[in-house]
């Protein structure tokens, strides 16, 4: 049985449909990321799980206990769910110790020891306990917010864009640290984010919302390599989309004949490759078999680079790779494809 079960949850705000029959299962101890464009219903779904609002329709159950059955809901403070927001929502006038202690009852046995233990859990020096939030870095503040949420020993942790205000390097380090802490504590976690890379690297399961509906949910690798449709493919990362002809286990396209699962489709199809699947080698011998192209643009990004090539028919492909192989503009290259192409189901 799933730890968290959402069954056909629906929510309207006047004439606007925020969620339209969303169903999702979350396993105990797992990490799920909910992604989607602005207005897709991500935060609304998180608020329904937290109990800040009730669904108009559908059910939400946690560990077998019904939290919401339509508008009839268990109040947020009785759900045993932790919540960390984008800015951490720390009390600026309280010390770090008092911020963390806010999640503990005043009469809690060994309360001060518990606060210090929580600081160590989130890898912060207990000497920071007497400081105020403004005296800490953004990453430290988010860890304090996490410690406060963990103080109540939640069954489920909800993270609403908690890293978005941090600088890139700090964001990645904080995300990895938080993921490790929650995994070590065995806390089931749901992250809402607009950052696809963050979702794919953080979660065991990724759920994609669009216009209030759940489009696809599954393991990050599966969604990245086998998205349900072109919109999901482009949302989860750069994609090369090509027209082709499908046969049994293969497709013909401008890059030649490629292996592909065609789902029984024949004739005209649309296929997807991720840019890193397309490889190139400089080649002046175009009498050999293969697909040839000219390098028309090179973008150097340090460890990574992007090379744009133009095919004989005028098609241009943007290919990802490491920053070690940078062919000059105008170089003729032979293209090859690693792994199967993905064909969208009709």
TrEMBL record:
Residue ranges occupied by any ABC transporter domain in the UniProt entry: 1-236
Q: Which GO terms describe its biological process?
A: quaternary ammonium group transport
Q: Name one GO molecular function term.
A: ABC-type ferric iron transporter activity
Keywords for this protein = ATP-binding, Cell membrane, Ion transport, Iron, Iron transport, Membrane, Nucleotide-binding, Transport
Q: Which GO terms describe its cellular component?
A: ATP-binding cassette (ABC) transporter complex
**Which CDD domains does the entry mention?**
ABC_Carb_Solutes_like
A Pfam family annotated for this chain is TOBE_2
Q: Which family does it belong to?
A: Belongs to the ABC transporter superfamily.
Q: Note the PANTHER family from the entry.
A: SPERMIDINE/PUTRESCINE IMPORT ATP-BINDING PROTEIN POTA, SPERMIDINE_PUTRESCINE IMPORT ATP-BINDING PROTEIN POTA
Name of the protein described by the UniProt record:
ABC transporter ATP-binding protein
Q: Which organism is this entry from?
A: Labrys okinawensis
